[in-house]
Amino acid sequence: MVVFAGQGDARRSMSLLWRAEQPERRTGPGPRPGLSVDAIVTAAIAVADEEGMAALSMRAVGERLGRTAMALYTYVPGKSELLDLMYDAVHAELPTEYDGTDDWRTGLTRWARDTLEFHLRHPWVLLVSQARPVLGPHAYAGLDTLVRLLAATGLEARALRRLAGTLTHFVRGCAGTVAEARQAAAETGESDEAWWFARSALLSEVAPDFADRYPGLAAMETGSAPPRPDEGAVPYLEREARETFEAGLGVLLDGIGTAVRRAGASGT
Nearest 5°: phi and psi at 214? Predict the structure, then answer.
């Protein structure tokens, strides 16, 4: 499921994101006092966090607030604009400063780990396509933080732009794998360990020539055993994804270090 942001009225959505627009307050019949854009957004985030993106609707948000869906439209034009506001609002959780970091590598490592955990707190954010980003203040603040951390490398602006995209896609990809692992276990009632153990045990039976057919994979797996059904407090796939995240992050940062040294050697 992919959700595209920015599908509502552009002017209304941008005005609400940047708080350039304030909804009119009715003095006669209408919404009861206490309802606000912020209250609606907070309730919508709670729905998405607890029940997933598929459960999000104006009606569901209204019910959480003890109001009808129609009462919300005085403040937010519709679900599309609400999604933009939700996405931007949760990004306010991300740190915008990393004081005390000794170098760019330390800062980027902390940023990547913080961003991974942020997406796991709000996995629905991963369903919002990056093809058409939400152009809100908190989303921009998060991107600005990453760019400033990268700027400490001394690399030129074009390189920073590409590296920001690479790191963002990497972290989101790893977070997506962990989120899907959690979702799979919850929805199927079967743990990662049980799923893998059952199928790995059958693989040698249905494909006895596996090592000959896939020598690269066989060599990589030499000495490792399939996960046992009762192995570990952290689910198997989540553990694998987190280890991949740390290993991959290290390689990416090593690559940035190489680019920094080359730029220094060439005097650019």
Answer: -130, 70
Buried b (16+ CB within 10 A) or exposed e, 26-35: eeeeebeeeb
pLDDT of residue 230: 55
Q: What pLDDT, on a 0 to 100 scale, did the predictor assign at position 196?
A: 85
**Residue in 97, 90, 33 with CA at minimum distance from that of residue 66:** 33
Contact 76, 56 (CB under 8 A): no
For residues 144 and 256, membership in a common domain is answered with yes
**Measuring CA to CA, how many Å separate 228 from each of 92, 165, 177?**
40, 37, 20
The CATH number assigned to the domain holding 169 equals 1.10.357.10
Does the structure show a pLDDT above 90 at 130? yes
Question: Cα(125)–Cα(137) distance, rounded to whole angstroms?
Answer: 16
Q: Which domain holds residue 60?
A: 10-90
Strand partners, 128: 3
Tell me: pLDDT of 87 over 90.
Answer: yes
Rg (CA), the chain: 23
Sign of the Cα torsion 100, 106, 109, 111 reads positive
